[in-house]
Prior knowledge:
The complex is a heterodimer of chains A (350) and B (337).
Chain A: H1 22-27, H2 32-48, H3 55-80, H4 88-106, H5 110-135, H6 139-162, H7 176-184, E1 186-189, E2 192-195, H8 197-214, H9 216-226, H10 228-233, H11 238-264, H12 275-285, H13 297-316, H14 324-348
Antiparallel strand pairs in A: 1-2
Helix pairs in contact in A: 2-13, 2-14, 3-8, 3-9, 3-11, 3-12, 3-13, 4-5, 4-6, 4-11, 5-11, 7-11, 8-9, 8-13, 9-11, 12-13
Chain B: H1 2-24, H2 31-41, E1 54-60, H3 67-82, E2 85-91, H4 95-107, E3 112-116, H5 120-132, E4 137-141, E5 154-157, H6 160-173, E6 178-183, H7 189-201, E7 205-210, H8 216-229, E8 235-238, H9 241-254, E9 259-263, H10 267-274, E10 278-283, H11 286-303, E11 313-314, E12 318-320, H12 322-333
Parallel strand pairs in B: 1-2, 1-3, 3-4, 4-5, 5-11, 6-7, 6-8, 8-9, 9-10
Antiparallel strand pairs in B: 10-12
Amino acid sequence: xxxxxxxxxxxxxxxxxxxxxxxxxxxxxxxxxxxxxxxxxxxxxxxxxxxxxxxxxxxxxxxxxxxxxxxxxxxxxxxxxxxxxxxxxxxxxxxxxxxxxxxxxxxxxxxxxxxxxxxxxxxxxxxxxxxxxxxxxxxxxxxxxxxxxxxxxxxxxxxxxxxxxxxxxxxxxxxxxxxxxxxxxxxxxxxxxxxxxxxxxxxxxxxxxxxxxxxxxxxxxxxxxxxxxxxxxxxxxxxxxxxxxxxxxxxxxxxxxxxxxxxxxxxxxxxxxxxxxxxxxxxxxxxxxxxxxxxxxxxxxxxxxxxxxxxxxxxxxxxxxxxxxxxxxxxxxxxxxxxxxxxxxxxxxx
Amino acid sequence: xxxxxxxxxxxxxxxxxxxxxxxxxxxxxxxxxxxxxxxxxxxxxxxxxxxxxxxxxxxxxxxxxxxxxxxxxxxxxxxxxxxxxxxxxxxxxxxxxxxxxxxxxxxxxxxxxxxxxxxxxxxxxxxxxxxxxxxxxxxxxxxxxxxxxxxxxxxxxxxxxxxxxxxxxxxxxxxxxxxxxxxxxxxxxxxxxxxxxxxxxxxxxxxxxxxxxxxxxxxxxxxxxxxxxxxxxxxxxxxxxxxxxxxxxxxxxxxxxxxxxxxxxxxxxxxxxxxxxxxxxxxxxxxxxxxxxxxxxxxxxxxxxxxxxxxxxxxxxxxxxxxxxxxxxxxxxxxxx
Lengths: 350, 337
């Protein structure tokens, strides 16, 4: 691509076929604002925290980012499609609980539990999408209901089956080691530990980006998020698209849930509440519009990375953790403002 | 434009009024100034030793804004000042996040680590990593069963079952017949042990009531409903200081004759003990958990000392009644009991 603007439009040619320069193309990307923000946060913590730049710290920051990023990618897609999922946080815990308790109670190979968990988690995602398209209620309400129900089910079932609030350990069962290798292993490069979740994260972001930019389904996502009525009128299968998006979130929740289970081999039933907002924040920092129709999967990864850097950077900087949430909120506002400003500039130069 | 100016003027007037009022209406007792006087009177924060400035990190499973953990932190901070220690504190109530925070402390190459093992399985790997990296670890508050297995030097805390049993015996001594145990965190194993322990030694009948601890009005309403439904209940045991107050209010509304007893202390509980609104409190001395953890790490670094002989060092239970409350009121006010 040349960095010089293409030839001026001939009269009668379609303006969408105009060739724009690389720089212009970059300026128009949804994630640009968040990349600038990420660089700023990185430089800031490099200056104020001595231990932030250590190689081992990078491994910790990337791990923290990946546990959010795995969920943020499908949540970003869902938000581009114009919907929310407030049940995403507890769904991760549900997925881990199902997997662990099924294996333990049936004394089955651990992989059986993992697959059953995948099916059940996808079913919950499908339930969200199905209820949404059937009832025409806003997804905020539908998934809020699912969120509360799952929170109760997590605790209720765990207590009913295990008699305590956490599951029993499955570390001594068949298949545990191979499952741990897939979901919760780590490898060391030059004395730095990298967790396998970083690979899962990269893969999910790559797939999400490919779907969004290179497939028909990706066009449908933008269409239903932008204007569902118009999309339906031109033949976009709105219902199928939205259910598909919820299935995507469920799949990522299953990956995160299995990671939780196999890294700690015991799951606490009360966890995951509140994380759904963190996934949404990561997507929004990454340039997703809360109203749908605009955003990117790469942006969600940058948002998750900013989140990981901030949450661990505050520790490395040895600040008082009481202020953590304040910084988080301030950062969210700044990042979103930056996004809006960059987008405006980009549109003005078109 | 004019409207903006009036707004500014109005704000200025309000500010001036507030400032004037605060200058005129001084209180000669209490308030911020008394607190500052007390702080000045206290020892200037200087260390009592000349050992190198080591860095100790403490990572707990506390949520945001928790009174109990505030006291633990204060104990640790004051020991750190005395022992010339740079003290870092971080906390998260999600197991995965807590493990990441411990990892961050290891990345910072701290000289000592203090962790709580409320979720032992989640902490197993990182604690092992710390001991492999040659960082001495001390566990506090929860995890007495796992502490040694994970390679920690010592565990400092209260055995929840023993504390519960002490409550049951105290209730017997007070001639109670039917007690209610209020659990404010569904799924907290330590809380279950407290109520189970109390039920074990209590000769009367013990019932458990689960309430939503993050929602105080709901706690009060639940206890109220229970006391209205069952007039025979003559003792209510709450598992945290803030909940004792809610139980007292509930008792008043329900017109019950039950005695309210509680685990843990705070300023309100101390005054309530003094005027006999509360029967007794069971303290596990959180200040001691923080203070001793830092101090024992210092002793280990300085002199290779380990306390406890491989067994947990217990900081509780200590039964506190109206007799002891007067003395403790002062300590609870400054936030160390």
